[in-house]
Amino acid sequence: MQNFDGTSLAFTILGILLGTPIALAFSPLLGGHGHGRVSLNSAVAHSLATTDWHVFARIRAQFPSGGSTKTRTNDEELAAAFVALVVLVTIVTAYVRNAVLIAGLMAGLSILATVVVTITFTVLWCRGAVDGRGIAARLAAVYIAVIAGVLSALWLVEPPLHADALDALATALRDGGSIFDADGVHVGVIVTQMFAALFTFGLLIACIALGLGSVAAVYVHSSSRPRWLWKFAFWTNRWAMHALTWWTLFILASLSLIMTSGLGFDWLTSAFAWINERIDALLPATPAPAPAPN
């Protein structure tokens, strides 16, 4: 029997996430209830209202936090800061050693998200389930997100600015050193790129959730059976169906492009320098020491 390692598990989960929306769109349940074409926006709005179960609010009500007012001591704050520093160093080190792999995964996920969402929405429209206006708007949003994902993936490896940062840190780690042995500018560039990669991955996952949630919304709107399954499928992806979520994600996508290009680090450096200058200007000047009497 062939071993089922972590890579196989990862590909299995990825196949489920990407294949489920397409499989549901091809399901014979669609179009079998005589509803004709429905507005995708109306189906999503109906599903949002139907699955508004306030699950997290009920969980918080069952397990109140208690609101502890204990003040942390200086030693506890220093310990927390040290732990945060160790975690950050570990994450940055792992990121530098796997930056090319992360960029490849990001580019691959961008392409897969495009294929999945395009096929899903095309099948929904061809089978007469939904109108084309809602599909066109969602496809435009997905394509913009995917373009941002591909560019971010390319710039993780070859950014327009500070292109030597990744090589410098990788060389320092390869020679047995740590990120503390590298130039501070290089470390800052890599840290900003690392956060940008997280933003982009979140955007691409939201694209896949948009496809799955849209299919589930059509099933919920048409009262397809089993109803609990389609409602649960939509509820697990309803976070990606809100307009506020997409505005937030597109803002993060714009930031990721700025940060992966290296421009974000330059802007942050200039901003902090400007703030320091303003603070120094507001502080009273230190008087020069009086000359010693003869």
TrEMBL record:
> What domain of life does the UniProt record list for this protein's source?
Bacteria
Q: Is Membrane among this UniProt entry's keywords? A: yes
- What taxonomic lineage is listed for the species of origin? Bacteria, Bacillati, Actinomycetota, Actinomycetes, Micrococcales
Keywords in UniProt for this one?
A: Membrane, Transmembrane, Transmembrane helix
Organism whose genome encodes this protein: Sanguibacter inulinus
Where does the sequence pass through the membrane? 6-30, 78-96, 102-125, 137-157, 194-219, 239-259
Protein known as: Uncharacterized protein
